Amino acid sequence: MPAIGFEPATRAEWAALAEEALDGRTADSLSTTTRDGIELPPVYGPDHLVGRVDPSGMPGSSPHTRGATSTGPVDGAWDVRALVADAGPQAANATALDELARGSTSLLVDPTAIGLADAGDLAEVLDNVHLEMAGVWLVPGPKADGPARWLLDLWDRRGVAAPDRRGGLGLDPLGVAARHGTPQKFSSDLAVLAAAVADTPGVRAVTVDATPYAEAGASEAWELACSLATGVAYLRSLTDAGLGLDDALGALAFTYSADTDQFATISKLRAARRLWDRVAEACGAPPDQRAQVQHALTSAAVLARTDPWGNLLRNTVAAFSAGIGGARAITVRPFDSAIGRPDEFGRRTARNTQLLLTEEAGVARVVDPAGGSWYVEDLTDRLAEAAWERFRSLEADGGMAVALASGRIAAEVDAAWEVREARRASGHEPLIGVSIHPDLDQVPLERPAG
C-alpha cells in the first residue's frame, strides 16, 4: 500500500542509496545463503511473488500451509505438551502431576528414559492423571510396541471412552533406527496397533519423528524430506497390511524440531503441512484427510552447557517460532537438560515460556500471523521446493529404509553438521556466552547425570 504524500520508492533507488553506505560493495553483497542453498536477499517485496499463484490457501483448507484448522488452537492456546523423562516411575509421576496442575495440557512420556519395564510401571507414571482430560504421547524408542499396548490397556482399565482418548502410541521404527543407529524391522504390530485405534480419532499410532535428523545437523530441507519419505514408508506398510488410506493417514502424527532460526522454523512448519498435503493428494486422499497433525519440539542442538542461562532465551525464540509456524502442540525442553536431569526450576521455566506466549502475548490468537509476509511466503515456497526434490531423490533410490541402511542419510547429515560447526567456529553462527561474550567467572551449573 503506498504511503499517502510520499512517492513510492523503487528497488533500484533503494539499492543506490544502500550502496552509498557500503563502501564500494553492491547491495547484492548483503544477501545471505542458507544451508540448503537458498539465497536470502536483503529486502523483500511483492515482486518476489510475481507470476505465482498464491499457494497458501486458507487456514483449514488444502494445502494447509496456513494451518490444519480454520480456527487455530482452541481457546487461543496450542497444546502445551510437557516432557516426562525422569528416572523411575515414581519420580515421573510426580513430574506429570505437577506439570498438569501448573498449566501443561498433555504429556510426552519417554518410556526409555523412565525405564518402564511393564504395564504396572506405566500405570504408576500415570497414577491420578485424568486420562479423559490430558493426552498422553509416548516418545518413540526401541521395543515401542510394549508401552503402546500398555497405554491402550490402561485406557481400557480406567474406562476412558474412545472419544475422550487423546495421545500417541509412539511407533516409529525408522526414526528409532536413525537415532540409535540400529536397524528396526517393520513388524506386524505397526498395522495391528494402527487398526486398534482406527476408530479413536484422538489417538495416533505412528509418530514420524524428524528431530533425529535435525539434531544430528540436517538442514531444514533435509529434515522435511526425511519426514516425507518416512511418512510414505509407513503409509505403504499400513495399506499393504490391509488398512484403508483414510485409516493409514489417520494413524500418523509428525514431530519437527524448532530452533533459534526464527524464520526458518516458521517457514519449515508451514512447508511441512503443504508437502504432506501434496503427498496425501497424490495417494488419492480427499482434501479433508490431508491435514498434518504437527508437534514441535525445541531442539537439543541449540542448548549450551556453558552459560546455560542463555538457553532460556533460545527456548523462547524456538517456542515463539513454532507457535507462529502453526504447530498444534509444542514441547519446550528445560534449559538445563543439556547439563543433566532438569530440576523443578528448569521444568517450570520451560512450561511458563509457553504460557507467557499464549496467555500474555496472545501469540496463538491469530491464525498464521506470518502469512502474507513476502519473506515468509517466499522462504516457505523455496523450502518446499528444495525438500520435494530431496524427497523424490530418496524415493528414487528405494525409500527411507534403504537410505538409512546404505548410509546415505548419515553422510548427508554429517556433511551438514561439519558445515554448521565450521560456521560456528568462524563466528558466522555464534552461540552467545559460548563462542562469543563468554562469562569466564561464571560458576558452572550442576545437575544429576541424565
Automatic annotation (TrEMBL):
<feature type="compositionally biased region" description="Polar residues">
    <location>
        <begin position="62"/>
        <end position="72"/>
    </location>
</feature>
<dbReference type="InterPro" id="IPR016176">
    <property type="entry name" value="Cbl-dep_enz_cat"/>
</dbReference>
<dbReference type="GO" id="GO:0004494">
    <property type="term" value="F:methylmalonyl-CoA mutase activity"/>
</dbReference>
<feature type="domain" description="Methylmalonyl-CoA mutase alpha/beta chain catalytic">
    <location>
        <begin position="120"/>
        <end position="437"/>
    </location>
</feature>
<dbReference type="Pfam" id="PF01642">
    <property type="entry name" value="MM_CoA_mutase"/>
</dbReference>
<dbReference type="GO" id="GO:0005737">
    <property type="term" value="C:cytoplasm"/>
</dbReference>
<feature type="region of interest" description="Disordered">
    <location>
        <begin position="26"/>
        <end position="73"/>
    </location>
</feature>
<feature type="domain" description="Methylmalonyl-CoA mutase alpha/beta chain catalytic">
    <location>
        <begin position="34"/>
        <end position="110"/>
    </location>
</feature>
<dbReference type="GO" id="GO:0019678">
    <property type="term" value="P:propionate metabolic process, methylmalonyl pathway"/>
</dbReference>
<dbReference type="InterPro" id="IPR006099">
    <property type="entry name" value="MeMalonylCoA_mutase_a/b_cat"/>
</dbReference>
<dbReference type="GO" id="GO:0031419">
    <property type="term" value="F:cobalamin binding"/>
</dbReference>
<protein>
    <recommendedName>
        <fullName>Methylmalonyl-CoA mutase alpha/beta chain catalytic domain-containing protein</fullName>
    </recommendedName>
</protein>
